[in-house]
Amino acid sequence: MSNIAILLPGIGSQYLKMGKSMYDNYASAKRIFDIADECLGYHLRERIMYGDSKEFNDKTFVPAAILTTSIAFFTVFQDVFNIKEAYYAGHDIGELSALVCSGAIDFSDALNFLVEHSQITLSQNDASNKEEISFRLQELISKLTLKRHVENVITTVDGIIYTDSEDIVRLMLQPYTQTRWKDTIRYMTNQGIYRYIEIGPSNMLRPQVLDVEPAARVLTVDYEGDPYYSTELFKKRKLFNKTYLLSRMLGVAVSVPNNNFDDRDYLQNVVTPYNQLKDIYDKYSSTNEQPSDSDMADASRYFMQIMHGKKTEANEINLRLSDLQEETLIEEVDMFIDLNKTTLLAKGTPVSGMS
């Protein structure tokens, strides 16, 4: 199991055409939207992708749209990367998405539940029927079928991991405004989780995580206004891909400004290690094999030699390494960061942007 947590967004993440690139490019995502259409009895996908933006104020439509889009993203993510996450957590209705992603609840059951739950809670404006509404909600929750015991979902009602299935009843009876999102992030941080992947529409959760834990690495799989960001991320298999990391190291090595104007030293400490780094990348670029530990150790040494050969400031090196770690979520990059941190501290240099 990896030390990664999956975060699922809630109300506020929705936007017109969300999930379209997933639907257009991945059969598994298309299947999720098709299941939603069948469950709901209307074309949810059509309304999400081609409807009127005013519909995104509809309080029964929006929760179903967010849930469906989030599960479509997660399904493709699992197909591509097949990662076993340590924890799942969702912001407001995203908690239901988290339960689906963990395997505790079936998607179609969650979708039907969410629609009926939204309809019941919308009728709470009439103060005289509170008891009836509470009874209807408890009756609805009791029908929610669990596929298996909940083991690794953090409940934002308490900010801790579910202790048993009874927590679901408590959660669903709580208004979404009474969640403890920051405590949820703190709980996972205390468990050693520093790598997070926000899966679903938009990128609303990243700043909230960094506000609690600035050292966290948070990758978002979707950006409003950039419909092909997620497609490129999945098709190029950028995450957990050491070969892709090697290609990015080469890119950084070229793009970092040079401050070394000694031709002989530049040849020895920039050109030569760059060619050695490129040889390692070329060895794996046309295969499905991941670089060996020894090759990655050599690559890191060549990369650091290039950075120092170009006389790059230590803090600049650290920022570049942090970007590489956040782009790929590969833990080995932490080794480079620690290496550079040692250099910084030895020089007595103030440290910035450091995890």
Account of the 3D structure:
With 355 residues, the protein is an alpha/beta fold. It folds into 2 domains: 4-235, Malonyl-Coenzyme A Acyl Carrier Protein, domain 2 (3-Layer(aba) Sandwich); 242-347. 56% of the residues lie in helices and 6% in strands. The chain is built from 16 helices and 6 strands. The chain has helices at 20-25, 27-40, 44-50, 61-81, 94-101, 107-122, 130-142, 166-172, 181-190, 206-212, 229-235, 242-255, 263-285, 293-309, 314-328, 333-347; strands at residues 4-8, 87-90, 153-155, 160-161, 195-198, 217-220. The chain has a 6-stranded mixed β-sheet with strand order 4-3-2-1-5-6, sandwiched between helices. Helix 4 (61-81) runs antiparallel to helix 6 (107-122). The radius of gyration is 23 Å and the shape is elongated. The two termini are 22 Å apart.
What shape does the CA trace take? elongated
Q: Tell me the name of the CATH class of the largest domain.
A: Alpha Beta
Distance between the termini: 22 Å
Low-confidence segments, ≥5 residues, pLDDT <50?
348-355
Mean pLDDT: 85
Q: Tell me what the CATH architecture of the largest domain is.
A: 3-Layer(aba) Sandwich
Helix content: 55-70%
Order of helices and strands: EHHHHEHHHEEHHEHEHHHHHH
Instruction: Report on the biggest sheet.
Output: 6 strands, mixed
Count of separate structural domains: 2
Rg (C-alpha, Å): 23 Å
Quickly give the structural class: alpha/beta
Write out the CATH superfamily name of the largest domain: Malonyl-Coenzyme A Acyl Carrier Protein, domain 2
Strand fraction equals: 5-15%
- The name of the CATH topology of the largest domain is Malonyl-Coenzyme A Acyl Carrier Protein, domain 2
Order of strands across the widest beta sheet? 4-3-2-1-5-6
